[in-house]
Amino acid sequence: MPYVNIKITNEGVTSEQKKQLIEGATNLLRDVLGKNPQTTVVVIDEVETDNWGIGGEQVTDRRKRGQ
Amino acid sequence: MPYVNIKITNEGVTSEQKKQLIEGATNLLRDVLGKNPQTTVVVIDEVETDNWGIGGEQVTDRRKRGQ
Amino acid sequence: MPYVNIKITNEGVTSEQKKQLIEGATNLLRDVLGKNPQTTVVVIDEVETDNWGIGGEQVTDRRKRGQ
Amino acid sequence: MPYVNIKITNEGVTSEQKKQLIEGATNLLRDVLGKNPQTTVVVIDEVETDNWGIGGEQVTDRRKRGQ
Amino acid sequence: MPYVNIKITNEGVTSEQKKQLIEGATNLLRDVLGKNPQTTVVVIDEVETDNWGIGGEQVTDRRKRGQ
Amino acid sequence: MPYVNIKITNEGVTSEQKKQLIEGATNLLRDVLGKNPQTTVVVIDEVETDNWGIGGEQVTDRRKRGQ
């Protein structure tokens, strides 16, 4: 029954990688808390780098500086 | 003043259906808790089937099996 | 498979009212989009009135003025 | 370490405006609570006007009436 | 920089289990997407069983039936 | 109409500080995007330090080391 939301920047994540995130998060809840995988929900949000800020600046600008 | 967030998979939901979700959620809060519809906010997020997991797998894969 | 999050102020909502919100939201998704109630998740967050703002002020202060 | 999520309607917000939202929210947490800007995260979600409801109706319809 | 939110029912999760969820989610993002663990944020929300619904009913009621 | 969610650790934030966060976030949306303060909603979530992770560890542990 757990609900897991993963927010990442939209920078070319593949469908295969999303599959691994979904499997991994579901297994984590099963292994640590014994949660039933059948009712665990995982939602991945891909956020544009212009819309994500850290340290007071857009990730777009950090990427330009190679960070 | 309530805030309702509805997350669904992005599979051809029409504008008319969204209208019904917004009306329905707003009326629900009014009927059950007496909340003023004028300040009830409803936000609908449509999530790609690759980005939604249940039972440890992507909805995309479930749809391929007819689920 | 939908996920519905309802945020309301923490002002004496009863367990029976929460039950009605859960039923109502689940039925809404079934009626409008044909979603399977068995996998619809509803999470209710009750937020202290000091922690909820609208119109630039705390709900606590609005309540004191009878709003 | 704070996490700030700003949800707005998708109506032509520029990259420069997003930059100002990120800076402003980060500075707000620093000024009020002394939070370290380096680990403050801000995520902006732009939501289609069909997917945002207030007063029981879609923002799309409100905009048509000039609201 | 990823942000992970884990919502679970409030049913006696220990501090040690939370530690494992935080480590596990952080490692998952590093392993699958190469994300820097130093800026990965994980927030765990524990939700009362009265406030969590699945299948149109409160988890509290499901627990009473042994589910 | 914007919705702002501020998540911070639960470490003695006063009602007055919450008031300043609500005012500040509401003014930010007005100043940058011309949003009407009357319909701007701000919700503050205070999260236990055991439930917040960064760098793969609980904030509780970081605080013990003076971070």
Structural description of this entry:
Six copies of one chain form a homohexamer. Chain A is elongated. The N and C termini of chain A lie far apart (37 Å). Chain A has a two-stranded parallel ribbon. Chain A has helices at residues 15-33, 59-64; strands at residues 3-9, 41-47, 52-54, 57-58. The first copy, chain A, has a single domain, classed as Macrophage Migration Inhibitory Factor. The longest helix of chain A has 19 residues, at 15-33. Helices cover 37% and strands 28% of the residues of chain A. The first copy, chain A, has 67 residues and is an alpha+beta fold. Chain A contains two helices and four strands, in the order E-H-E-E-E-H. Chains A, B, C, D, E, F: The active site is at residue 2. Chains A, B, C, D, E, F: Belongs to the 4-oxalocrotonate tautomerase family.
Quick structural overview:
Chain A is of the alpha+beta class and 67 residues long. In chain A, 37% of the residues lie in helices and 28% in strands. Chain A has a single domain (3-64), classed as Macrophage Migration Inhibitory Factor (2-Layer Sandwich).
